[in-house]
């Protein structure tokens, strides 16, 4: 199935309003790309264990809200233009930015597999390895490998939360042969 990807240029302040609007217009999901979310990585926080320092410089100045539609591009453009104009008139003093619209086609096949590039094997504690079924991993002595095929149900575990919650269990689990 072919999808239409709509990218709306807005501001941090307007991103939630635009995301909601896209869902109300029929988007199956949205994504927000905002430099302000990454700026927190420059502060001392445990949630940003792995961080590409050049990421912010590669991001656009505008906040981008991306939505995916099963509708034809011409039809969704007209709907979005009308709805964004109405939103702008109702926003009062909220700065929504330009509300520019970029449309492109996205094949379903791209989505079905592209998320896998971010899901990599990771170590929990000293002996536990969690890895997706499609990724190779060379085990070391004493390693216990847990293979998952999660679909798109789980994140990439790049934040530290799960690692902090599971790490201390090394002494509790025993390997049974």
Describe this structure in words.
The chain is an alpha+beta fold and 177 residues long. It folds into two domains: 2-114, Alpha-Beta Plaits; 119-171, no CATH class. It is 28% helix and 23% strand. It has helices at residues 15-24, 35-39, 55-58, 73-90, 108-114, 161-166; strands spanning 2-10, 30-33, 63-69, 101-107, 122-124, 128-132, 144-148. The strands form two sheets. The chain has a four-stranded antiparallel sheet.
What's the SSE pattern? EHEHHEHEHEEEH
Radius of gyration: 21 Å
Sheet with the most strands, sense and barrel status: 4 strands, antiparallel
CATH topology-level name of the largest domain? Alpha-Beta Plaits
Determine the N-to-C terminus distance. Answer: 47 Å
Going by CATH, the architecture of the largest domain would be 2-Layer Sandwich
Strand order, largest beta sheet: 2-3-1-4
- Tell me the structural class: alpha+beta
The number of helices is: 6
How many domains in all? Answer: 2
Shape: elongated
* Name of the level-1 CATH class of the largest domain: Alpha Beta
Mean pLDDT: 79
Helix content: 25-40%
Strand proportion, as a percent range, falls in 15-25%
User: How many strand segments?
Assistant: 7
> Stretches where pLDDT falls below 50 for ≥5 residues?
156-165
């Amino acid at each position: 199935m072919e999808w239409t990807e709509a990218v709306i240029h807005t501001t941090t302040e307007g991103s939630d309003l635009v995301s909601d609007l896209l869902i109300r217009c029929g988007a199956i999901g949205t994504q927000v790309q905002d430099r302000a979310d990454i700026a927190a990585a420059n502060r001392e926080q445990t949630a940003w264990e792995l961080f590409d320092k050049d990421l912010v410089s590669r991001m656009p100045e505008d906040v981008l809200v991306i939505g995916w539609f099963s509708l034809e591009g011409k039809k969704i453009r007209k709907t979005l233009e009308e709805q964004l104009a109405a939103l702008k008139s109702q926003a009062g003093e909220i700065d929504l930015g330009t509300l520019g619209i970029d449309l492109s086609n996205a094949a379903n096949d791209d989505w079905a597999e592209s998320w896998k590039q971010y899901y990599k094997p990771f170590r929990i504690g000293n002996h536990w390895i969690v890895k997706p079924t499609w990724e190779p991993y060379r085990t070391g002595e004493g390693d216990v490998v847990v293979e998952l095929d999660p679909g798109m149900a789980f994140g990439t575990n790049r934040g530290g939360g799960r690692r902090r919650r599971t790490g201390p269990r090394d002494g509790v689990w025993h390997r049974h042969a």
